[in-house]
């Protein structure tokens, strides 16, 4: 509990984290608002094909907030100080305070999980408010099951980012790959055109926890998993990365 | 009591340490000396559980670091650098450490006062001078009021007043029965602070004894150091 407390304290005293909070809390609402404005006439006329997606596409995009959170929570430990200050890293302090490495990683992952859930709840509130503000009585009802799917998607994504960064020690690579993957081009989406195995990649499976996939004209957008199996697939990825991260972290010298 | 027993460390094909043994005893300040690359930092990192030994052991009161229940209250350490994220304030840095060790916020203010950093505690660590960063590292080491202090180059970058403060402070800690192990390459400074001296060279102990024993027939500790660590070094004292 103490270690978890300390990790939360570390996260909230890091200025870079506020960027994660800003993106996570506001980007979904902004996208939901833009979506609502574009679709408003169709929705009122009852002919919109995208009603079921309003809000959720924004929430899918807002996952970038927790990607930053997951990456920064680890990369901040390895940020090397200037050479005139001796080139130290915070990780030396962290591990002399919490000597058990699995315990340390669990505490850190716990802090990332708690913060991701809270941030996701804030994002859902801003997103629902934004759609209601613009669509009024025509705003879609947000089902609890799909919103739970969003929370799981955010939390699992944050933990994946966390696990990958433990392996790389540096935030730049995971941050670049994961942000591009969740905003510009989805690699799993491209792969899914070639092989069905791509549906088992964590991000592709993960979005099936809350996206509707009712576009029958395009097979790629068809549902492949049920939301529950989608969650399980992503959870397995998270577990694998976390276990590998614990093993590597346990064996690795801090000086290496 | 710190007990280093036949410590060996290989990294790839490099032999960093080849069988180091020495003790740092309660009530004494032990100076750990050696040229750059001799293996001082590696020894301290293994002692603190940060690096893994290839063989041998480094024990704190008879236990490896990882088995200490709440290490901060047993051993306080300040290694190279500040050990803090540059975007955090000095106070925020000490506060998360205090939380991890179950210590109060008022203890953070106490150690800030002890190391003379109270006025700079609200500034980001990135803006600290080398001396201030050293003081922050010292504050972190003192948070749990430990019986053992392990300090890597504690006086590096301190102004004369800071150096004098460290010297007096460490002497007082030792006199009240605590164990202090410090590495340094400031020979003159070390000679005024330590009781015992361990000198390592190329990953081996070349001298281990009280300050008087290690100086031996040489005029100063510095003379003894160069005699022992030059390429034609003699036998262990």
From TrEMBL, chain A:
Q: Which UniProt keywords apply?
A: Membrane, Transmembrane, Transmembrane helix
The source's domain of life comes to Bacteria
TM spans (from-to): 12-34, 54-74, 109-135, 147-167, 172-191, 228-249
Among its keywords, does the record have Transmembrane helix? Answer: yes
Instruction: Give yes or no: UniProt keyword Membrane.
Output: yes
Q: What is this protein's name? A: ABC transporter permease
**Originating species:** Paenibacillus aceti
TrEMBL record, chain B:
Keywords, sorted A to Z: ATP-binding, Nucleotide-binding, Transport
Pfam families per the UniProt record, alphabetical: ABC_tran
Sequence similarity: Belongs to the ABC transporter superfamily.
| Keyword Nucleotide-binding part of the UniProt annotation | yes
Q: Which PANTHER family match?
A: ABC TRANSPORTER, ATP-BINDING PROTEIN
Keyword ATP-binding found: yes
Name of this protein: ABC transporter domain-containing protein
Which SUPFAM superfamilies would you find in this protein's record?
A: P-loop containing nucleoside triphosphate hydrolases
Domain (ABC transporter) ranges = 2-227
């Amino acid at each position: 509990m103490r270690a978890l407390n300390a990790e939360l304290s570390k996260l909230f005293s890091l200025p870079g984290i506020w960027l994660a909070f800003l993106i996570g809390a506001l980007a979904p609402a902004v996208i939901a608002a833009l979506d609502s404005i574009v679709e408003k006439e169709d929705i009122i006329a009852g002919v919109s094909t995208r009603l079921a997606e309003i809000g959720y596409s924004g929430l899918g995009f807002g996952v970038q907030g927790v990607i930053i959170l997951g990456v920064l929570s680890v990369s901040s430990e390895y940020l090397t100080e200037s050479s005139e200050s001796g080139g130290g890293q915070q990780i030396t302090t962290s591990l002399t305070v919490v000597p058990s490495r699995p315990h340390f990683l669990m505490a850190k992952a716990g802090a990332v999980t708690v913060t991701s859930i809270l941030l996701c709840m804030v994002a859902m509130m801003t997103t629902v408010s934004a759609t209601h503000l613009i669509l009024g009585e025509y705003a879609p009802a947000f089902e609890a099951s799909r919103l739970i799917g969003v929370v799981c998607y955010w939390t699992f994504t944050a933990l994946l980012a966390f696990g990958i960064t433990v392996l790389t020690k540096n935030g730049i690579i995971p941050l670049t790959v994961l942000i591009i993957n969740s905003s510009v081009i989805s690699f799993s989406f491209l792969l899914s055109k070639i092989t069905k195995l791509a549906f088992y990649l964590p991000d592709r499976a993960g979005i099936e926890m809350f996206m509707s996939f009712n576009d029958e004209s395009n097979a790629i957008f068809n549902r492949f998993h049920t939301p529950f199996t989608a969650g399980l697939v992503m959870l397995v990825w998270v577990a694998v990365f976390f276990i590998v991260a614990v093993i590597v972290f346990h064996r690795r010298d801090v000086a290496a | 009591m710190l007990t280093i027993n036949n410590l060996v460390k290989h990294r790839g094909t490099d032999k960093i340490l080849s069988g180091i043994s020495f003790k740092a005893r309660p009530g004494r300040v032990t100076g750990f000396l050696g040229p750059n690359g001799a293996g001082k930092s590696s020894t301290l990192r293994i002692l603190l559980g940060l690096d893994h030994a290839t063989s041998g052991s480094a024990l704190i009161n008879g236990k490896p670091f990882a088995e200490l229940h709440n290490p901060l209250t047993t051993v306080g350490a300040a290694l190279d650098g500040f050990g803090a994220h540059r975007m955090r304030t000095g106070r925020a840095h000490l506060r998360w450490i205090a939380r991890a060790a179950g210590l109060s916020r008022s203890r953070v203010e106490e150690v800030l006062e002890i190391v003379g950093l109270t006025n700079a505690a609200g500034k980001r660590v990135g803006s600290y001078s080398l001396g201030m960063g050293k003081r922050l590292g010292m504050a972190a080491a003192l948070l749990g009021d430990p019986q053992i202090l392990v300090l890597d180059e504690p006086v590096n970058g301190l102004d004369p007043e800071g150096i004098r403060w460290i010297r007096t402070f460490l002497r007082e800690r030792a006199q009240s029965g605590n164990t202090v192990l410090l590495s340094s390459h400031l020979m003159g400074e070390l000679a005024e602070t330590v009781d015992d001296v361990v000198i390592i060279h190329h990953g081996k102990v070349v001298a281990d004894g009280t300050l008087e024993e290690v100086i031996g027939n040489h005029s100063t500790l510095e003379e003894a150091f160069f005699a022992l660590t030059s390429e034609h070094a003699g036998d262990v004292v």
